[in-house]
Amino acid sequence: AQKITQTQPGMFVQEKEAVTLDCTYDTSDQSYGLFWYKQPSSGEMIFLIYQGSYDEQNATEGRYSLNFQKARKSANLVISASQLGDSAMYFCAMRDDFNKFYFGSGTKLNVKP
Amino acid sequence: EPEVTQTPSHQVTQMGQEVILRCVPISNHLYFYWYRQILGQKVEFLVSFYNNEISEKSEIFDDQFSVERPDGSNFTLKIRSTKLEDSAMYFCASRTGGRQPQHFGDGTRLSIL
């Protein structure tokens, strides 16, 4: 069964606008972690933001915030004030209780000038 | 800032040959991982390693794969008899534990001819 689902293969956003990238997950674990990574065209994987399953507040890191809705099992990434350099693939990932990581299929974000 | 380093950046190998991909995780990290990403596809978990043994592995990680941490700093992935479908980007990652994210190396692009 698919653990992480990203339903948006591609997204466009106008520069300086906000964009939400969707992620839903499937687990019966009580303790888990949710992550977002950015993969530019150069190929490296860059950690953006983390949300723990017991965290009551949504995580924020600069222009990135994670909209965590535990009951819906969703962990959407919100990028505010998009920049041209935000154009990349974005992967949602989950760490389960056995320390195994699962990645979604990714969303390709294009920021238009 | 400390980094995960992977060598080589690109490896070209004849089908049927053995290949060893090398990684130097961040020095105080305790958990080590290998992933692969076939071109244009999602990141797939291969194996996790903790306390000098494999803690989890995926169905992809069959008998032709093995991992070693031979000297306390290097973390290697060996593919015994490569197949065309092993062509992919291979990422090494490490983390300290708990809530901490994985830090990824820049990857090794493996091309099987």
Detailed description of the structure:
Chain A is built from no helices and twelve strands. Chain A is mostly beta strands and 113 residues long. The N and C termini of chain A lie far apart (39 Å). Chain B is mainly beta. Helix content of chain B is 0%, strand content 50%. Chain B has no helices and eleven strands. In chain B, the strands form two sheets. In chain B, strands 2, 4, 5, 6, 9, 10 and 11 form a seven-stranded mixed β-sheet that branches. A four-stranded antiparallel β-sheet of chain B has the order 1-3-8-7, with no helix packed on it. Chain B is globular, with a radius of gyration of 13 Å. The model of chain B has no long low-confidence stretch (mean pLDDT 92). Chains A and B meet through strand 5, strand 6 and strand 11 of A and strand 4, strand 5, strand 9 and strand 10 of B.
Computed CA radius of gyration of chain A, to the nearest angstrom: 13 Å
For the biggest sheet of chain B, the summary is:
7 strands, mixed
What is the average of the pLDDT values of chain B?
92
H/E series of chain A, N to C?
A: EEEEEEEEEEEE
Structural class designation of chain A:
mainly beta
The total of helices of chain B stands at: 0
Structural class of chain B: mainly beta
Tell me the series of helices and strands of chain B, N- to C-terminal.
Answer: EEEEEEEEEEE
Uncertain ranges of chain A: none
Total DSSP E strands of chain A? 12
Number of strands of chain B: 11
Strand content of chain B: over 45%
- Percent helix of chain B, as a range, is under 10%
Shape of chain A: globular
Oligomer: heterodimer
Distance separating the two termini of chain A: 39 Å
Low-confidence stretches of chain B: none
What does the overall shape of chain B look like? globular
- Please state the CA-atom Rg of chain B, rounded to the nearest Å: 13 Å
Q: What share of residues of chain A is helical?
A: under 10%
What's the number of helices of chain A? Answer: 0
